[in-house]
Amino acid sequence: MSLAFIGAIIDRIREWSKGKSGILMPESSIFPLVMDSPFGSLDEIYRRQVARAIPVLANQLIVLVTKTQWRGEVAEEMADRVGHQYVLTYYSPKPDCQEDAIALGSGQYPLVRLSPNLFEYTEIIEVERQG
Questions:
Q1: How sure is the predictor about 35, in pLDDT bands with cuts at 50, 70 and 90?
Q2: In Å, how far are 1, 80, 92, 124, 128 from 109, measured between CA atoms?
Q3: pTM metric for this prediction
Q4: pLDDT for 75-95, tens place per residue?
C-alpha cells in the first residue's frame, strides 16, 4: 500500500511539473526516491514483487538495505538496474566487535571492522562493477 501511495505522489509531482513554467525546468521533476529497508519484513514472494516494482517509481532510486535484505530474489530482480553500489563499513572502537563482510560481485566488502584508531566512524566504499 505504501508503494502505491509513493508512486501516486511521484506521478502527481511529474504532472504538476509539466504544467509549470518559470523557475521549474522539465528536468526539475527528476529527483531521487530514497527508500530505507523496503524489504525488511516481507516474505519471499512480496520481496520479489516489490523488487520489480520500485525501480519504475522514479528516474533515480536510492535503496538502503541490510546484508540479509540484498540477497536472492531482491538481488536477482534489481541487479540489472543498479547504476552504482556502495557499502557502508562501520568501524567500531569496541575490541570485542564481531567483524562482518558481504560478497558482492567478485569481491568481499567489510561491513563491520575494528577501528584502527579507537574512533567510531563509517566509511563509504564503492563496489567495483563486473564486466
A1: confident
A2: 34, 20, 16, 11, 10
A3: 0.74
A4: 898 888 899 999 999 999 999
**Pairing relationship of beta strands 32-36 and 60-64 according to DSSP bridges:** parallel
Name every residue whose Cβ is closer than 8 Å to that of residue 115 and which is 6 or more positions away in sequence: 91, 92, 93, 121
Three-state SS string over 41-82 comes to: CCCHHHHHHHHHHHHHCCCEEEEECCCCCCCHHHHHHHHHHC
| Cell triple for 42 | 516481507
- Identify the sign of the CA torsion 130, 74, 49, 57: negative
Residue in the structure block whose three cell numbers are 563499513: 89
Residue ranges covered by each domain of the chain: 1-83, 84-131
- Amino acid, res. 12: R
Residue 108 pairs in a beta bridge with 103
Task: Please give the Cα distance from 89 to 84 (Å, whole number).
Answer: 16
Taking the C-alpha atoms of residue 94 and residue 113, their distance in angstroms, rounded to an integer, is: 10
Neighbours of 131 (CB within 10 A): 3
- What does the pLDDT read at residue 57? 78
